Amino acid sequence: MDYQNLVPVTGVIQSITRGDNCCSQTLMLRTQDGIVNFVLSNATAVIDNRPLRRGMKITAFYDGSRPVPLIYPPRYQAELIAAPDRNGQVMLNFFDRTLTAADGSLKLNVGPRTQVQTINGQRFLCSPGNRTLLVYYTATTRSVPPQTTPQKIVVLCGEG
């Protein structure tokens, strides 16, 4: 999967219904911009395999290069789901060897309590630099770029 094409949508789950078949589900997400529906299939990666429930804040990522039906509310195929802590945020970006995001929007300072893992939850024992990372964090500095010590980094190995 090319993680560079993934587009994030953050919101609160309003409902979870059975999809077109028994192996898929549809999430109705309330976002700042209104309602967005996401289809979850067996190919959707849910970080930490967290059970999704109504009222939960999540960030769902869809592939912005895929065609989507022109309907309202919009409906996307979810590729990746992350559930940050209550006041937390998540960012998906390519980070260089200095752990600065490709768009310069965030710099990471990995601390002793930062969990660094692969998408399947295994410890990542190499440097996370020069890779696409899903970063869980709360506070940032007011510097340029903002800096944070993330709680968790998920390394997305492979393309991207």
Briefly, what is this?
By secondary structure, the chain is mainly beta.
Please tag this protein with its features.
160 residues, mainly beta, 4-stranded mixed β-sheet, 5-stranded mixed barrel
Question: How would you characterize the overall build of this protein?
Answer:
This protein has no helices and 12 strands. The strands form 3 sheets. The chain has a 5-stranded mixed beta barrel. Strands 7-10-12-9 form a 4-stranded mixed β-sheet, with no helix packed on it. The chain starts with 5 loop residues before the first strand and ends with a strand.
Any chance you could write out the topology, listing elements then pairs?
Blueprint: E1 6-18, E2 25-31, E3 34-40, E4 45-46, E5 57-63, E6 75-82, E7 89-95, E8 107-108, E9 115-118, E10 131-137, E11 147-148, E12 152-156
Parallel strand pairs: 3-6, 4-6, 8-11, 9-12
Antiparallel strand pairs: 1-2, 1-5, 2-3, 5-6, 7-10, 10-12
